[in-house]
Amino acid sequence: MKLTSIHAVPLAYFLEVAERGSLSAASASLHVAVSAISRQVARLEAELGAPLFEREPRGMRLTEAGLVVQQYGRRAFLDAQTLQADLQGLLSVAHSTVRLVCTDGFARDYMPYAMALFQRRYPGVSFSLEVCAPAAATRMVREGLADLALTFAIAAQEGIEVVYSEAAPVYAYVARKHPLAALKRASLKEVVAYPLALPSETNTIRQLFDLACGLEGLRPRILLSSNSLSALVGYQAYADAVYLTGSLAVRNNLRAERRVLVPIASRAMQQRALQIQTMAGRHLPPAVRAFAEWLEEDIAGRRRAVPGLPARRRAGVSGAASA
After folding, report:
1. Of 86, 126, 173, 248, which has the most beta carbons under 10 Å away?
2. Is residue 311 located within the same domain as residue 254?
3. Which of 174, 115, 189, 195 is nearest to 148 (CA)?
4. Of the candidates 60, 84, 108, which is a domain's last residue?
5. With contact defined as beta carbons under 8 Å apart, do 299 and 215 qualify?
6. How confident is the model at residue 322 (pLDDT cuts 50, 70, 90)?
7. Within this chain, do residues 283 and 156 fall inside the same structural domain, yes or no?
């Protein structure tokens, strides 16, 4: 049997069981009898000729085949929603909602700026925005819970299409009178000579920093570790600490906060990418495509004013780097 001939009802029931983890939980969510859901799942398995779940005492766990069908199903239902809206004449860029997810650094300043400027061109577009760690942002796109992710990447992931990617090195963000501010480029050893305010371990900057310090045998003094950019930047206003960040997260605040970005001369601290991610193989609605293109142009245009950035990298392939 071909995947394209899968019936909608069995597939919908399968997806709900996969999401909830058990027949009973899916039954409560769908308000459908457990026996009916079980029959539809069994029908789908018979038509595909493969078990999709491992039946366990406390629930249902997806097999490898089930994971493939889950990814297909999510994409199929999103494409069906796009088609239905298109047929109803509702899919113009001017009347759409774009579901976004980004990391905390982008949420503080850049993403509000980007959404507001895009809406000046397309006043009928609305946005929803979730803020989370890089890995969670990628997962939301892969699972169809968001249309676009603006996030950072240090490793490869399946089920993701990277529509834009550029190198995203890490900088020391310091006051203009800080000793590091006089340097065109600082070594990691020079950076860790001062107290630090750092993101928590779920952040790609922190992951690269910990790795780099381990490789160089450095023992940093971390005054504050937090998953909140606002807390870290606010703390820095009262404490003489070095904050590590990417350029886009603070670019609009350099003058107001009297700070400078100092490039860090460490190969390990350069091993991440800023990415715009979508679900692999999904047909994107026009508004989502238009906003992705707008982001790409704006982000690429900002590179010229940032010190020490390596060459831009284009993307557009499934399974590319993701965090």
Report:
1. 173
2. no
3. 115
4. 84
5. no
6. very low
7. yes
Output the pTM of the full model.
Answer: 0.68
Radius of gyration of the chain (CA): 23
Looking at the structure, do residues 126 and 183 belong to the same domain, yes or no?
Answer: no
User: Does 160 share its domain with 296?
Assistant: yes
Of the pLDDT bands very low, low, confident and very high (cuts 50, 70, 90), residue 318 is very low
Here the tokens at position 264 are 């860090």
The whole-number pLDDT of residue 183 equals 95
Q: What is the CATH number of the domain that holds 211?
A: 3.40.190.290
Q: What is the pLDDT of residues 175-186, one digit of tens each?
A: 899 999 999 999
Tokens of 274: 């800023």
Among the three residues 228, 251, 270, which one is the final residue of a domain in this structure? 270
Residue-wise pLDDT for 62-116, tens only, equals 888 888 888 888 877 777 766 666 655 555 666 788 999 999 989 988 999 999 9
Angle of helix 8-20 relative to helix 23-30, nearest 10 degrees? Answer: 120
Q: Tokens in use for 63? A: 């097999």
